[in-house]
Amino acid sequence: MTGSSPLNLADLAASGAPFALIARDGVTVEVLTGDVVDVAALAGIPLEDAAGTPREVLALVPFRQVVERGFECHDDGAPLRCLVVDAHEALPLDAALAQLPNHRIQLADAGFDIPDEEYAAIVRRVIADEIGRGEGANFVIRRDFTATVDADAVTAGLTWFRALLEHERGAYWTFLVSTPGHLAVGASPEAHVSAKDGVVTMNPISGTFRHPVGGATAETLTAFLSSTKETEELFMVVDEELKMMSAVCTDGGRITGPHLKEMSRLTHTEYMLRGHSTMDPRDILRETMFAPTVTGSPMQNACTVITRHERSPRGYYSGVAALFTPHPTGGHDLDAPILIRTAYLVDGTLRVPVGATLVRHSDPDGEVGETHGKAAGVLGAIGAVERDHIAEAVELDEDAPTAQPRILADDPQIAALLSSRNARLASFWLNPQDAGAHGPFAGRTALVVDAEDRFTTMLAHQLRHLGFDVTILPWHAVDVAAIDVADLVISGPGPGDPRETGSPRMARMREVVRARLASGRPLLAVCLSHQILAAELGLGLAPLESPHQGLQKTVDVFGMAASIGFYNTFTVRVPAGTTEIGSTEIAADASGDVYALRGPGYASVQGHLESILSRDGLETLERLVGHALAS
């Protein structure tokens, strides 16, 4: 830490200079001051000065930066704003509270920008038109609570920051960032990504339990934790973040948890993912933009869906606040919470963006209620609306700190219920993973064709574990004439209707499958490509009555029962009882829905063997790959 004179927050606020306050250890408030620089891209974040000396930078990364990954968005031009830190000091928490203002900031003209009925209608459309057409497993659609504020922005921000420190608990970062023309203050529960000493950590959080009047109890929390929707919602975001971990970590990423994230008015469920990486932290940040908990999955198509259904740009909502700190041995550590549970104040207008995660069995009215709960959580925490009393709280003066309730995660019944979730998951991702230099397919090469679903990064990691030297190429970069160089081609999964004729992506994936079949060289087709392969073989395709997005099923795969995770809206369908057509063997259920195919030089699977939901995924993958290579 630097800085020698006693720190006075009132003087700092009055100076008009840019600054940031961060509370993340429970005992101190970090105070960062410096100059603001706006840059166009993550690579431009100025981690060194002109002489090459490392420096600390706090960057506010807006949602629009997804354009760096080629994804769609409503582009509002929100700047990638960097506070280049000249001084980084620390105040004891008590000393900071003593200096912060403690006044009620009045709101006027308060309400949501989208009425409840209209938001519920959007939810219905997304379920029917997006999830129902195979565009993805889940999507987060936001709306904004807005109000006018007739008060000095910095004074309001400092007041709200104090309220968050006193009344919110369980936050990963409680923060205030004040830069010219823009103020953000919030208490983010979720670390999106961090990198320290070569260890990358991600923290997927999903499922939102709104505490009832009187507070959460073990009984009310048990009902939440027993919800199929909430459980599957968390599993889906873990899958999506493991895609990112597999892209940046040589060891793919290991899951620990689940845990409870207990806050004052809401409780969430979470996992921790850890892996090792030597990448520049700016590149790690780019490859992990942004959290599926606030976008959806698959990520690229989620951005397209957001653009279709949200009426305005997101600004900084669902972006990150990224603190890059020089490491003593070189390089920078990264600490980047997601910008949620955050209030923005610009030109006298307060904006609190909130979103709900929409899945195949979402209830529109329930999702409306979730946005109300999340907005109330922020507004109540900052004292903008009346705060709820929580369980076991002592009645105090309204502006005094709230008494802390007992930690529900310590309840034996709750702990057992959380732990039981892992019985459904693949041990491969729960245990340490080694490189596959001595795997059964060591010395072989594999080309994975990505059809806009980065499950391919997890699949590639499993293939490396089995010994393959793996290359991943996006569908549009594949030279169909050159794919026969690889010992094995894996035609990958992706969103959308495989029957669509006007899609360049579908056309290219059909070319890949058709060319590889014609060559007789080994081919494995997954999910979307399984459906494309089936169509090439003359089998029929049909939409499912209810999409299998994030569904775990135990199915027979050529004589062996396999527990597999499914993310499909369409299926290959044959007459009930069909086990082979020509030279193609068929694994199907009693209704005729096909789960796997195999024939001379090829195999396919409808499910995602790489998913955490595929308990028997790695073994099934080895069997199918072995068949393709052997024949």
UniProtKB/TrEMBL annotation:
Q: Which reaction does it catalyse?
A: chorismate + L-glutamine = anthranilate + pyruvate + L-glutamate + H(+)
> Which molecular function term from Gene Ontology is one that the record holds?
anthranilate synthase activity
Give the UniProt record's GO annotations in the biological process aspect: L-tryptophan biosynthetic process
Q: Which UniProt keywords apply?
A: Glutamine amidotransferase, Lyase
| Enzyme Commission number(s) of this protein | 4.1.3.27
Q: What broad class of enzyme is this?
A: lyase
Per the record's keyword annotation, is RNA-binding included, yes or no? no
Database matches in Gene3D superfamilies? 3.40.50.880, Anthranilate synthase
Q: Where is the Chorismate-utilising enzyme C-terminal domain?
A: 117-374
State the InterPro entries in the record: ADC_synthase, Anth_synth_I-like, Chorismate_C, Class_I_gatase-like, GATASE, TrpG/PapA_dom
Which residues are in the Glutamine amidotransferase domain? 447-623
Q: Which PANTHER family match?
A: AMINOBENZOATE/ANTHRANILATE SYNTHASE, ANTHRANILATE SYNTHASE COMPONENT 1
Q: What is this protein called?
A: anthranilate synthase
- Species of origin: uncultured Microbacterium sp
